[in-house]
Write a structure and sequence with these properties.
Layout: E1 2-7, E2 10-15, E3 42-45, E4 50-55, E5 63-67, E6 73-74, E7 80-82, E8 90-99, E9 109-118
Antiparallel strand pairs: 1-2, 3-4, 4-7, 5-6, 5-8, 8-9
Length: 125
């Protein structure tokens, strides 16, 4: 970038150094929302009573919390869960929350949920 200077009936172009300082905010205070760096997702195989769950999340995930909809949870990346045969058939809402740091801050985590239908006549896994 150049600045125009004049004096004594003459004009000169002088180089000007411009420094830009950039900063970001975490978005926790609501002033500047940011997109999460991770996105939760999962698939599953099986109809009951044993179901395999597979993490399909994107980003630098370091923690997993599975909620199987029956009060049970897991922190494994790809857990296998056995549902109680007492409640067949039943649909459970399974939720996966993934985080990228040890602290569970809102901007470090992402969640996904899906209905999982369990029947007593499902194929073996």
């Amino acid at each position: 970038m150049f600045a125009l200077r004049s004096g004594g009936g003459k004009r000169w172009l002088w180089p000007v150094l411009v420094t830009l300082l950039l900063s970001t905010t975490s978005g926790c205070d609501g002033d500047s929302p940011t997109e999460p760096e991770i996105l939760a997702g999962f698939t599953f195989r099986g109809e009951g009573p044993i179901v395999e769950f597979f993490d399909a999340s994107a980003g630098p995930v370091t923690q997993w919390l599975w909620e199987f909809g029956d009060g049970e949870t897991s922190t494994l990346r790809n857990p296998v869960h056995e549902y109680s045969p007492i409640a067949f058939p039943e649909t459970y809402i399974v939720r996966l929350t993934v985080c990228e740091t040890v602290e569970r801050q809102a901007d470090d985590c992402s969640s996904a949920q899906k209905p999982v239908r369990i029947s007593s006549t499902g194929p073996p896994v």
